[in-house]
Structures are given as structure tokens and as C-alpha cells.
Amino acid sequence: MLPSCCADRTSTPEGGRASRSDENEEASGQMETTSRVGAQTPAAEGGQRAPSAPRTIDGYLRAPFPWYGLDEAFTGPRWLMQVGTAADGAVEHGSIGHGDEPSVRNEHMAAATDEPREKFAVVVTVAANPSRRSADGTGLLEATSVSSAAWLAGVGLLSFTWPGQMDHSLRDDWLDQQTETAWALADDLEGPEWSKLSLPVDGVPMPFYYRESEFGWVLAGSTGSGVHVGAYGRGMSAYGLGFAIVKDVAAYA
Questions:
Q1: Is the pTM of this model over 0.90?
Q2: Which helix (H) or strand (E) holds 180?
Q3: pLDDT tens-digit series, residues 32-72
Q4: DSSP H/E element including 94
Q5: Per-residue CA distances from 27 to 62, 82, 219, 234 (Å)
Q6: Less Cβ around it within 10 Å: N or C end of the chain?
Q7: How far is C-alpha 188 from the chain's CA centre?
């Protein structure tokens, strides 16, 4: 599952198809996300899925911002995942999946049994919030940013990753370490780990930050509709993707 974004952090991140872009964006982001309203039960380790809870669109419908998904060029399955809410219940971010529903599985074991690799892309929508008071009025939360989307997308990819030949007892430690790495990478979008792409958002080319690893790819950028967009996936190329506002999110429930 996507973790609470940045709530316990003391520092904040700075923050046509597939053409390179030299546009720079500076931003910093921290989100006060304390709970998640689920629309998907996380997969169990080894590729087994836990019993599914009834999928709900309540959180998606409560959001005061538009949801984004892949544009109409993608014709495969689409499905709701989960939303993240602040302490006061306000929806701050959420995810919509496309393609195969990913499971947590050992890549080495999957290769040994000749299982086809999953092909999926998950789009994360993050409300572009300005600096604001915390729910209890005791502190000031910094503005969300492209870095917020990059962080959520990076950790989202990790949540469906189990490196080959890794012992079950070591995965939690590996996940903690890689989560810190994802945070550091989101804090440095101008660093060498990121390249720049131009991808269409509602038909208009927009700059995105992009990185990839042996586990998949992560990208993040902004829209003209008051939200930031992150995405992660594997088995599907990020270079041919486009994003668009979801016209009827209830159709995905």
C-alpha cells in the first residue's frame, strides 16, 4: 500500500509523446496524510492475494480535485486502488491502476516458473495544496509538489516489489532502506538519477521527471488542473503514455 506521505518527516522534498525537455521545476512538498481509504486489498507475499474487501469509491468521490488516469490511447483494464486522507478526513491523494493488477512476488521465483511478467501502470493524483495549518492548528504544513508525487510513486512501486533470491526475513529491512532511497530521490529531482520527458496531459505536452530501475519506472510532473501527477509501473513503457482527467471515476469501481 502507499504509505502515509511525509507526515513524520522533519525535512521536505524539493521539488507529443516522450520527447526530452529541458524545463526545470522547483518545489517542496509535505503532506499530512494519516490514513488511507482502501479500494484494493494489498496482495500477499509470494503473489497470493488477500481476500478482497468491497471496493469503494467514496474517497474518490469526496476529493475536491480531479482524478487523473491514462488517456484514451490505453484501452485495457482500469481499477481503483486507494486514497490517502488527512487527519480531518480531507482526501489528499489517490491511485488508479491500469493493466494487470500487480502482486507482491519474488521475481526469482516467478522467472523459475516461467510466469509472464505483469504489465501495469499506476497513476497517482496529488492535490496541489499550498502551505496551510495542520488539522489541529498547532503547525504549518508545507505545500505539496511534484516531489510529493515522485515520493508516492516511488514507494508505490516498492510496495509491489520483491527482489530475486531475497529471503523472506530480509524483505522488510530492504523495504525500509529502499523507502529512504525513494525519499532521497524525490528530494533531488534535478539530480543525475532523473531524466526529463515531455508527455501529454489532457492533450498538452507537459514536462515530467523520469527514472527507472530493475524493478520498474517512476515519473512525476504537474497538470494545469490543480494537481500533481505521479506514475509507476513495469512491463509497460512510460515513453508512450499520456494522461487525462477521469471523466467518471465511478465507472472504475
A1: no
A2: helix 171-186
A3: 443 444 444 333 333 333 333 334 799 999 999 999 999 99
A4: strand 91-99
A5: 26, 25, 15, 27
A6: C
A7: 17
